[in-house]
C-alpha cells in the first residue's frame, strides 16, 4: 500500500451550537462523506468568536479557520451573526496586512438542517487550502519585517 503525501490542511471550525454545529452533526449522522480536516469547536454564537481566537488558531498551527453560524435572522441572540460578519470583514483586512490569503478564513451560515451544505463547505474549503499549501505564519510575518 502506498502512503499518500498529499497535504492535509488543519482547519479549526468555530461552529455555533444552535445551527452550524447541529448541521455538522447531521452531516455525520446522515453519513455524508466529507473531509475530516475541520476540528470543530462548539461556541454559543458566531458573534462570540473574537478575532483574537482566529489569529491564535492561525499562529499555533492551523492552516485555516471556519466560522459558521445561523443564517441572518436566525441568530438565537438576535444579532450575533451580524456582529460576526462585521468582525470578519475587519479580520480580512488584517489578514491582507499580514499577507495571509483571505481564503484561509471563511464565514458561513449553516442551519441545523443543512448537513449537506456543511459537508460541501468543508469540502470546498479543504480543497482551497490544500491548493494554497501549509500556512507558515512565522515566515509570512518575518517576510514583512
Ligand atoms: S446563535 Fe447561531 S450565530 Fe448566533
* Overall form: flat
User: In which order are the strands of the major sheet placed?
Assistant: 2-1-3-4
Number of strands: 4
The number of helical runs is 5
User: In this structure, how is the largest beta sheet organized?
Assistant: 4 strands, parallel
C-alpha end-to-end distance: 45 Å
Radius of gyration: 15 Å
What features would you highlight for this structure?
145 residues; alpha/beta; 4-stranded parallel beta sheet; 16% strand; binds FE2/S2 (inorganic) cluster
Give a structural overview.
With 145 residues, the chain is an alpha/beta fold. It has 5 helices and 4 strands, in the order βαβαβαβαα. It has helices at 20-29, 51-59, 80-98, 115-132, 137-144, and strands at 11-16, 38-43, 64-69, 105-109. The protein has a 4-stranded parallel β-sheet with strand order 2-1-3-4, sandwiched between helices. β1, α1 and β2 (38-43) form a beta-alpha-beta unit. The protein starts with 10 loop residues before the first strand and ends with a helix. The model has no long low-confidence stretch (mean pLDDT 94). Bound molecules: FE2/S2 (inorganic) cluster.
Give the topology.
Blueprint: E1 11-16, H1 20-29, E2 38-43, H2 51-59, E3 64-69, H3 80-98, E4 105-109, H4 115-132, H5 137-144
Parallel strand pairs: 1-2, 1-3, 3-4
Helix pairs in contact: 1-4
FE2/S2 (inorganic) cluster (FES) binds at residues 16, 18-19, 45-47, 69-70, 75-77, 80-81.
Q: Concise description?
A:
The protein is 44% helix and 16% strand. It has helices spanning 20-29, 51-59, 80-98, 115-132, 137-144, and strands spanning 11-16, 38-43, 64-69, 105-109. Strands 2-1-3-4 form a 4-stranded parallel β-sheet, sandwiched between helices.
